[in-house]
Amino acid sequence: MNYPSNSQLPRRSFNRKQREKSRSHLKNQKLQDEADAVKNTPKRSPSTASQENYEKCRTSRLYQVWILLMLGLLGLIINLFRLQVVQGKALQKIAQQQQTVQSNPFIPRRPIVDRNGNVLAIDKVAYTLYAHPKIFNRSKQEVAYQLSTVLEGANLEKTLTSNDLLQIFNQRETGIKIADLISQESANKITDLYIDGLELIQHPQRLYPQKELVAEVVGYVDGESKGQAGIEY
What we know:
- The protein is of the alpha+beta class.
- The chain folds into three domains: 7-41; 43-98; 112-232, Penicillin-binding protein 2a (Domain 2), CATH 3.90.1310.10.
- It has helices spanning 8-40, 46-86, 88-99, 140-151, 162-169, 184-192, 215-218, and strands at 112-113, 119-131, 176-182, 198-207, 220-221, 227-229.
- The radius of gyration is 53 Å and the shape is rod-shaped.
């Protein structure tokens, strides 16, 4: 059996120590590198973290607003479909009924005469005059003067001068009632003036030429030409 010589033992011991020392150095170097890496890693400041939280919160709110807008748009589309398609015909019928005015044609009442042929009651067409100074195409003074010349011969209960009409025109801008029971002849004269803002509304009128002479016998009618007393009833 061969035993190592004394000269070989120290060499092996030296090599072992050298390897252990090298391993220890590598381990320390690795730990040092890891420490340097951790040290050099940038740390997030509190302001950066709060900024990120703010951005996340802002994005979340934008999504919520977008969802609400989409839901509102969807509800609007559904409601529009319901009104236009589902209930379209029914709503159209209701609109036509509201926009259509049914008026009964004017049927004049028969005249009432005595045995001698004198007219006691008769229907005639009369007009009510309204003024709308806001849309006059002439000055108020000129309209008042021209209109007064026509109304003087209209046999109205109250004679209206140009000054009276001018005061009436200054009351308000539109919808001023000027006179009632204007005859067809006077209405034609007013129309021939070609003044914008003068409105004539036609309506039936029951006339009693004999006035109060036979009023108790003939009677009278109301505003809808319905008899209320006497022969008219």
